[in-house]
Every structure is written in C-alpha cells, then in structure tokens.
Amino acid sequence: MDSLVFLDEAGRSEVQPVYVVHGDEDFLKRRVLAALRTLALGAGGDEFGLSHHDGDKATFAAVHDELATLPFLNARRLVVVDGADGFVSRYRPSLEKYVAEPAATGVLVLDVKSWPATTRLARLIDASATLACKAPAAYKLPAWCGQWAKAAHGKQLTGPAAELLVQLVGPEMGLLDQEMAKLAVYVGQAGRIEVGDVDRLVGRSRAENTWKIFDAMAQGQAAEALAILDRALDKGEEPLRILGAFSMQLRRLAQAARLTEMGVTLRAALEQVGVSSFNLKGCEQQLRHLGRRRTDRLYDWLLEADLGLKGASQLPPRTLLEKLVVRLARKNPPAPSRA
Q: From start to end of 125-193, where are the E strands?
C-alpha cells in the first residue's frame, strides 16, 4: 500500500500484527511510524509500550520475547526493528513462522530499504500492512505541498506558490516540509502563502547564486561559475535545492528555445515562458551561448543530474553539479553525443 494512502486511512484501519515500512523517503517513514504508534498504542500511548531494536545487532529471540511479553499500561506492545534489512535476511524462516502465528498483543514493524514482493515472507504479510514510502512523482508534489501546508501548518499554499517551491527546493519531502514550516511563520496571521512569499523567503539567495552562475555561464566563464557553485555548497546549500533552482531556469530556456523553433521571436518566447522584463537580456545571452545543440539536451542533463543526486550515480553530489555546470559553461562544446 502506498504510504500516503495509509496515512489518509490510518485512523480507520485495523491493527495488523506485522507491518513492513519500506522505501527511501525518510520523511514519509517518520510519519508512518508515528501513525503506527498512535494506531497500536493509542493517542496517549506511553514509552512502556514501545521499543526499538537496531537491525544490525538485534536477535530474533530478543525481538520475539518483547512481542510475547504482556504490555504494561497499554493494550498492545509495539516493537520496531530499525534498518531491518539484515535482520530480515538472517531470520527469514523464523519471521515466516512468526507471521503465521503472531503474538496476540504484540505489533512488529520492520523498517527496511528494500522489500522484494516475490519472497515467501512478503507474500505472507497482508498488502495493507506493507507500506511503500516513496515520494510522489514530481508532477504530483505541488498538489501534495498544498495539502500538507494546510494539514500540518494551517496555511493555504496557492498552486503557483507550490509549483515554485518544488522548483526551488527539489523533490525531497522533508526539505519541502521544512520550508513550508518557515513560510507559515513568515506570513504570520495571513492565511495564504503566495508566490511572492516563496520567492522572498526561499528563492532569493538561491536565485541570486543561480543567476550569478548562469551569468558566468553565458560568458563562457566555467571557472567562475564553478567557483560560485563551490561557495554555495561550502555554505551548506543542499545539492538538490541548487539543482531545483537550476531546473527552473533551464526549463524556461528549453521551453523558449522550442518556441523559437516554431517561429516565435526570441524575446517573445522568453516573455511567454515567464521571464521577467529585467531578466530578458541575460536570458537572451544565455540561450545564444548554449545554442540549439545544448538546449536540445537540457532535459536529459537535468534528469541525469536529478537521478544521480538521488543515488543512481556513485559520483559525489558536488561532482554531479560541477559536471552539469561545465556542460553549460564551456565555450566550444564538442559534437553532440547521446551517450
């Protein structure tokens, strides 16, 4: 079951004896584990009913003893095995037997990264108790931001503001939540968070750095662009946030380039994709510097960098961003390659 669906229905769910929480979105995992605690122990459930075990060190015997021990001051006992991939591998036969005959008052939660659906153990656990913690597709994130801003922070996040927030911050839900919390405080008594609020609080410093990088890029000054990037990273800027700011600008340039291929003038194309009047000259220079070969590759390069930052590449995040900047800033790119 998708974790967002579970979270919507958690208050109406029946307690299962075994849950598997899998995936790589830590923000969703934290929310799911909090919901499971409330579901199993009640809103006022105390620490006596909850225990955590390190999956690298835990033994099945110790976990089983806790699950079988009668709870104190609670109707159930909740036992969570954190980082349980190794635990599952070591004790798979024992876990299969336990799922068939679970403890009457114990609830076991296995927190894992990977959960292949083809194993016998996976098939034994109810689908409604197998909770996938993966971020929604990128195009769904603005809608989620709007829902979460209202539910968690009591503010209406307008659609355009949500779009800009995702573009600036990137797809990591925990970072998006942090920025929404700041925005909720920033707007004070106002009930709505507008585009201007996101731009002023989240985007300004990031946009300034991004514009400086793109300005250097348009002049073919790769060393200067890299130096600005390095300073931003050294100050603690998150690589995914930097890529989000890059993405917003590069997508605009790519869209404008395609419009020019349809006969629209360059300035009109830039205005059509939302470039402000005081940025028109700079964007024109950026597009002329990139040329058609590179603008045709912008979406591919952004996807490559995005996937790399999320774990698809063994290169460090700094190197992945530097690679993108060099591609954009070099003066005389070689013949295009689809590799």
A: 130-132, 156-157, 192-193
Q: In this predicted structure, which of 17-21, 57-61, 74-78 has the lowest mean pLDDT?
A: 74-78
d(CA 85, CA 318): 29
DSSP tag of 71: P
Q: State the Cα angle at 282 between 280 and 283, rounded to 5°.
A: 65
Question: Which has the closest alpha carbon to 40: 128, 106, 124?
Answer: 106
**Chain centroid offset of residue 93 CA:** 34
Query: How many alpha carbons fall within 13 Å on the CB side of residue 158?
Result: 13
User: pLDDT (tens digit, 9 = 90+) per residue, 171-202?
Assistant: 788 889 988 999 999 989 999 999 888 887 87
Burial class of 321 by CB neighbour count within 10 A (0 to 12, 13 to 18, 19+): buried
Tokens representing 217? Answer: 């890029």
Q: Which amino acid is it at 282?
A: G
Could you tell me whether strands 18-22 and 130-132 are parallel, antiparallel, or unpaired per DSSP bridges?
Answer: parallel
Q: Nearest Cα to 19, choosing from 128, 121, 119, 120?
A: 128
Q: What would you report as the CA-atom Rg of the chain, rounded to the nearest whole angstrom?
A: 25
In the chain, % helix, strand, coil (3-state, to 5) comes to 65, 10, 25
Q: Which domains does the chain have, with CATH numbers?
A: 3-132 (3.40.50.300), 194-329 (1.20.272.10)
pLDDT in tens, 43-60: 766 667 888 999 999 999
Structural contact between residues 275 and 257, judged by C-beta atoms closer than 8 angstroms: no
Residue 256 near residue 286 (C-beta atoms within 8 A): no
Residue in this structure with the two tokens 């109810």, named with its chain if needed: 126
CB-based burial, 71-95: b 16+ in 10 Å, e otherwise: beebebbbbbbbbbbebbebbeeeb
pTM over 0.90: no
List the beta strands (DSSP E) in the chain: 18-22, 50-54, 77-82, 106-112, 130-132, 156-157, 192-193
pLDDT per residue as tens digits for the range 80-104: 999 999 999 999 999 999 999 999 8
